[in-house]
Amino acid sequence: MKINLKVWRQKNSNTEGKLVEYHLDNVSEDMSFLEMFDVLNDSLTRKGEDPVTFDHDCREGICGTCSMYINGRPHGPQTGATTCQLHMRSFNDGDTIVVEPWRARAFPVIKDLMVDRSAFDRIIQSGGYVSVNTGSARDANEILIPRTIADEAMDAAACIGCGACVAACKNASAMLFVSAKVSQLAILPQGQAEHKERAERMVAQMDAEGFGACSFTGACSVECPKSISLDHIARMNREYLGAKLTSDNA
Amino acid sequence: MKLESKIPEGPLAEKWARQKFSLKLVNPANKRKYDIIVVGTGLAGASAAASLAELGYNVKAFCFQDSPRRAHSIAAQGGINAAKNYQNDGDSVFRLFYDTIKGGDYRAREGNVYRLAEVSVNIIDQCVAQGVPFAREYGGLLANRSFGGSQVSRTFYARGQTGQQLLLGAYSALSRQVSTGKVKLYPRTEMLDLVVEGGKARGIITRNLVTGKIESHSGHAVLLCTGGYGNVFYLSTNAMGSNATAAWRAHKKGAVFGNPCFTQIHPTCIPVSGHYQSKLTLMSESLRNDGRVWAPKSKEDAQKIQKGQLRANDLSEDARDYFLERRYPSFGNLVPRDVASRNAKYVCDEGRGVSKTGLAVYLDFADAIKRDGKKTIEAKYGNLFEMYEKITGENPYETPMMIYPAVHYTMGGLWVDYNLMTSIPGLYALGEANFSDHGANRLGASALMQGLADGYFVIPYTVGDYLANIGPADKIPVDAPAFKEAEKKVHEQIDRLLAIKGERPVDDLHKELGHIMWEYCGMARTAEGLQIAREKIKALKKEFWSNVKVLGDSQEMNQALEQASRVADFIELGALMVEDALNRNESCGGHFREEYQTPDGEALRDDANYAYVAAWEYQGDDQPELLNKEMLEFENVKLTQRSYK
C-alpha cells in the first residue's frame, strides 16, 4: 500500500507546530499503525531527519500510553481499540492520513505527538482509592459481592487512562475518565466509607486541572477504546450531588 | 564473593515467622528519618512504595513511563495464584510451594518459594480490600480457575485483565501516599546509574526524559523493581520500553546477576507476520484450558496450508495431530510453558507448522464451543478472541487460532538473599528484576503473585532490618564525590552515543541482537550454537559502538537516545546470557540444551553438578565475568524428573 501522512511536528511545548507531509510506499496491511510509524522513523533517521516522537509502550491495547488523533478521531477509525491495535488493513491504498496529538489545555504537547497527561494522575491522587493500608485487610471471601455488581465494577475499572475521552470531547472534559473510577468504587462495598469525599475531591481536582464541562454528547464513550459507558457519568453526577447536599467537606 | 542466602533455620513452615521476629524494627518515630528510592512502579514497585510510605518512610518512586499506572505488569492477563483453597480441591500452602519448586525444575530456593506460597493468601485479601474487581460466583464469593500446569483451581482473575486490575490497585495505594506527601513521584525519569560508596548503595543517577536533565538522588536504600530483560530478544511480549538498564548498571557496580540464561518462552503468542514486527502479543495461557493444540499430521497438508491452498477446518480429525494430548496424556494441553513451547517448535521444525511462515500451530476451540456453547466461551475469553481478531483479521470462533512461542518472562535477574537484598548492601531487587522464586521455569499466574508478595509483604519487614542497623545518619549528600563521579560517567556515555553518528538506526541493531539470541540462545541451545552467538555478539557490540545513528541532542525529549542507551546494555546482558547457557551443561526448565535430554526428548537435569544458582560477578569492560555458585539445598522435596505424561 501507498500511504500519505500528514503528521503534527512540534519541537517542544514552547514552539509552534505544523503538519508535515510524508509518503510511504511499502506499507503492509498486516502492519500495525505504530509499526508504520516505526518504518517512517527508520527512513527519517537514515536520511538524517529527526524521527517523529510519539508515546507508545505495551502495543497490545492495555497500558494506555499510545495517543494519536487520526483523521479527526482519537485512536483512529476502529472502535473499541487503541492506536496500537489499529492495523493498516483499516485503510486503503493511496489514503491520506492526518495524525495529530491529543488536543486539550490540560494535556500540553511535550513534542510532536506526545502530550503530558499527568493531570490524570493528580485526579486519582485526589481520591481514586480505598484507604486501606497493607496488612489490614480481612479475608477476601468475607466481602460478598454479587456477580452483577462485580461485573459492573469491572466494566468501569477497565479504563486505561489514555485520555481519548478528553480528546474526543469538544469541551475537553474528563468526565468519563473521572466517573469510571468514582463509579467503580461507589458500587463496591469497599468504597462506601469514602464515597462522598471521593466524588467531591476528584471533581474539584478535575476542575482545577482545566478540563472542560460535560455537555453529555456521548462522544467520549463512542471513542473510548474500552467502551466505558455513559452510565458512569450519570452515577457520578448522582454521587457528586448527593455528596454536596449532605457532606460537611464541600 | 561469598553468597549467603540467609535462609533462616528451622522447619520450612516456620522460617518466615522466625525471620520476621528476628529482623530488627525501626522505631515508628524514626521511620521519617529514612529515605527509600524505588525504581519502577509495576506490581513490585508500586506495592513496595505504597507499603513503605504507609509505614512512614519517605519514598521517591521513579518510572520511565508517563504514569506509574502504565508499567508493564498492566499487560498480564491470566491471573494470580493463591493457596486459599476456596474450592476445597486439595490446595494448600505446601502444595503451591511444591508445584512452584517442581515447575521451576528444582532450581529455586525452598525457603523463598515457601514464603511466596505462604503470603499468597494475604495478597488476595489486600487486593479485594482495595476494590480490585476479581471475578465472582453468583453467590458473591470469589471465582477461581485452574491455570497452566496446575491441577487445582487456585487462580484468581479479573476477566483477561488481571494484571491491569492488580496494578491499578497498587497504583491507587501509591496515589494515596502521593497525596499524603509520603511518596514523591518521578514519571518519565529513567535510572542510568547506581551510586555505591563505602560498600553500600547510596542513591541513583537519573535522566529526566522530557528535559534531558541528569540528576542525583540520595537515599538510605534503593529498591530496583524494574522488571525483566526479555527485550534482549527484541521481539517479546514485553512492552517496547521494558529494559534492563537499571539492573544491568547495578550489576556493573557490583550486584551479582543470577541465572541470566533462564528465560521463559511462552507457548501461546500470536505468530510473527513480517519483518516490521515490533512486538509479540501474548494470548493468555488460560486459553489452553479449553483450546486444543494441534498441527497437521502430514507435512504435505501443512505445506498446502502454508500456501493458502487448504484451511484448518478442511482437515478431518484423523489428519490432525493433537501433539500435546498425544505425548502427555495426563496433563495434555495444560503442560507447563517450557514443555508446550518446545513441542510447538519440534512440530514446526519437522515442517508441520501452519501460517505463511510455517512457524505456527493451531489452538482450536471448536470442541469447547460444541461442548459449552459459544456464550460460555465468549464469557471466558471474549476479550482475548477480540484482541486476536484485531491483530490477525481472523475470527477465532470460526477458525482455529494460530499460535507460536515467544519470549515472555525472565526468571534470571539480580541475585538476592532471603531478605531480597542484592550483593550490594542497601540495594534490593523485587519482582521480575530478581532471580529468586521461579527457578528455571515460572508457572502461569505466579509472576503477579511474586511481584506483590515482594512489595506488600516481604520488603516492608526486611528493609527495616537494614535501616535499623545502619541508622539514619548513614547517608551521603548528592554533592558527594561518588554522585559527581557517577553523573560525569552518565554524561560521558550519552555524549559518546550522540557522537558516533553512524549509519544504522538503534532498532536495526537491536533487531540483529534479537535474531542472534533467538537463534542460538532461545528455545533450544547447543554448545556449538552458543559459541557462534558469543562471537556474533562481540562483533555486534563493536558495530554498535562505531555505527549507531542517534540524532538530536541530549537536552530534549529524545526517544532514539533512550533506546540506544538501553540497547547498549542489552548487548552486554545478551553476552552474559550466552556465557551462562554455555556454562550450564544440563537442561532444566526454560533452559534446554539439546545435548542433554532424555531418550524421549525431555529436559535432563544434572543435579549432581548443577543444582546451584549461577551468580555472575562483573569484572570490568570486556572481561569474562566471574562465576559464583550458591548451592541449592533441598530438604523438603525430592528431586525427581519432571513428568507430565
From TrEMBL, chain A:
- What transmembrane ranges does the database entry give? none
Q: Which domain of life is it from?
A: Bacteria
Q: Where is the 4Fe-4S ferredoxin-type domain?
A: 150-180
Q: Which PROSITE patterns match?
A: 2FE2S_FER_1, 4FE4S_FER_2
Give the residue range of the signal peptide. Answer: none
| Co-factor requirement | [3Fe-4S] cluster; [4Fe-4S] cluster; [2Fe-2S] cluster
Choose any GO biological process term that the UniProt entry carries and state it.
tricarboxylic acid cycle
Q: Which SUPFAM superfamilies match?
A: 2Fe-2S ferredoxin-like, alpha-helical ferredoxin
Q: Name one Pfam family in it.
A: Fer4_8
Q: Which family does it belong to?
A: Belongs to the succinate dehydrogenase/fumarate reductase iron-sulfur protein family.
State the name under which the record lists this protein: Succinate dehydrogenase/fumarate reductase iron-sulfur subunit
Report the source organism.
Answer: Spirosoma terrae
From TrEMBL, chain B:
Q: What class of enzyme is it?
A: oxidoreductase
Enzyme Commission numbers on file: 1.3.5.1
Note the topology in the membrane: Peripheral membrane protein
GO CC, alphabetical: plasma membrane
Write down the InterPro entries for this protein, in alphabetical order: FAD-dep_OxRdtase_2_FAD-bd, FAD/NAD-bd_sf, Fum_R/Succ_DH_flav-like_C_sf, Fum_Rdtase/Succ_DH_flav-like_C, SdhA/FrdA/AprA, Succ_DH/Fum_Rdt_flav_su, Succ_DH/fumarate_Rdtase_cat_sf
Q: Name one GO biological process term.
A: anaerobic respiration
Per its UniProt record, the required cofactor names are: FAD
Q: Where is the Fumarate reductase/succinate dehydrogenase flavoprotein-like C-terminal domain?
A: 510-644
Keywords assigned: Cell membrane, Electron transport, FAD, Flavoprotein, Membrane, Oxidoreductase, Transport
Mainly resides where? Answer: membrane
Q: Where in the cell is it found?
A: Cell membrane
What GO annotations for molecular function exist for this entry?
electron transfer activity; flavin adenine dinucleotide binding; succinate dehydrogenase (quinone) activity
Report the sequence similarity comment from the record.
Belongs to the FAD-dependent oxidoreductase 2 family. FRD/SDH subfamily.
- Its name, as the record gives it, is succinate dehydrogenase
Species name for this entry? Answer: Spirosoma terrae
